[in-house]
Amino acid sequence: xxTNAAAKKxxxxxxxxxxxxxxxxxxxxxxxFSISCFIEQYEKSCRAARLQAQLEEEIKTGERLSxxxxxxxxxRDIEAYIxxxxxxxKAETYQYEYLRDESSNSSVVKNTEGDEGFLTQLSRTFSVxxxxxx
Length: 134
Hints:
72% helix; 134 residues; 2 strands; 2 domains; two-stranded antiparallel sheet; rod-shaped
């Protein structure tokens, strides 16, 4: 009986040692995996921060370019060039604009008139008459 009890204790002791060793190995593997995940996450966050800084710099560059473009563009010169060289005139408030819609192969009429008072309408009427006699 003593041998059986001693053999069982010895067997239980070995099981406990092997179970403890298995748990230690699993804990080490899980820790190694989590460390590698943290390293990968850190690398990705650093890369994202660098890309964000690049994006902000490119946005600032784009804003500077658009401001510079607007400074260089003189819309009065463009309007004068168009009226002199192409014989086009800017639409008055009493005129209609015909806008061509390329996607549906049709034209749309845009009325540039707004709700105005009596004096404005009277002035517009005289402008139409004056334009007719030009």
